[in-house]
Specification:
The complex is a heterodimer of chains A (78) and B (325). Chain A has 78 residues and is mainly α. Chain A contains 3 helices and no strands. In chain A, helix 1 runs antiparallel to helix 3 and helix 2 runs antiparallel to helix 3. The model of chain A has no long low-confidence stretch (mean pLDDT 86). Chain B is built from 8 helices and 6 strands, in the order αββαααββββαααα. The C terminus of chain B is likely disordered. The chains are: A mainly alpha (78), B mainly alpha (325).
Chain lengths: 78, 325
Amino acid sequence: MSGDIIEAAKFIGAGLAMIGALGAGIGIGLSVQGAVQGMARNPDTYGNLFTSMILGVAFSEAIAIYCLVIAFLMLFVL
Amino acid sequence: MEKTRKWRWGKNRWIVLALLILTIIAVNIYAPIQPHIQAAAENLSSEPLFTLPGIGDFYLTNTLVATILMDVVIIVIALIVRHTAKKDELAPKGLAGVFEMLVEMLYNMTESTAGKWAKKIFPWFATVLILVLFANLLKLIPGFETIGLLHHSAEGYEAQSLGGNWYTILNTKAEEGGYMVTPFLRGVSTDINFTLALAIIAVTMTQVIGFQANGFRYLEKFFNFRTIFKKPVFGLIDVFVGLLELISEFSKILSFTFRLFGNMFAGMVLMALVAAMLPVFMPAGIMLFELFIGVIQAYVFGMLTMVFMAQATQGHSAEEEHSNA
């Protein structure tokens, strides 16, 4: 019985941990939006903007990846 | 180049259709099972290779085998490119041409970001990028994570002989004494040791390049006590900002490690789950996605290394010149 509860709590915890991906999604969307708008207005800056955009996306994505790692830890390691 | 190549779509789509039908037949004969997913790399040898006192046992893991394979591939490609480059052609063809393009692109990128320090930073940047690129792309070779040793497992499946010493796992749970597969090869970046080592190298070399560029003034970035006597309030903020910089330097290691590991491990889990649930056509799409993610992650890892190194060379002095002017 207690083993089942722990098993259930693992899945619930993993699901809750992934809520953090919400913020990362918003962040990535905002940074790409800004970069694409800049590219559309001034196509010459494509290269610079693309580099900065990828960096920004990587930083935001890292947050989602932390959530994912926590979820994986709960599912497979703990 | 003179002749436009004929579009071979007409022939290729029959190949795609044949492969699809082949997948359907294969899935009906040998239904795929959901593999056991484990965050740490699996051991191939039951006995440790060697033991270091105080640290522990070292096993032959499947990611280690994949690392050696990756190294061999990179070294062979490097030798081929060197052989072609020695011929001194103006426009090298084939593999060497591709690598010339890649290296030229990377060097231009470094030069536009790092300026005069490009020569120092470029080798680290290119090494990290090419290493991670190959680590991520080798994962896509068929046979990775599927071919391996059989071992007994509590929740195993029944095995069927394919002739000789080869077995396949069936989609029926064994009542007792079932088998699971420990793959020979597993994606290199799905081992946290690889990404952690790479992250530590990248961040440590960032500090070294920072010291080379600024001397001991580089430490002022972290321990900034110069302004605290002139303007106590803002000086205190400067000290605090320096401490934050110090912490962020350590968090770089963490974020480097978990970004690459998380992305690649998530890809592996996704691939395993989708291949077990929807074995027809869908894994191909996931493979394509994995290709994309692998290239992007290699780019991001290299790019971040390069940008951090370029930031370290600028140090505090650039800001001061700006404020004095």
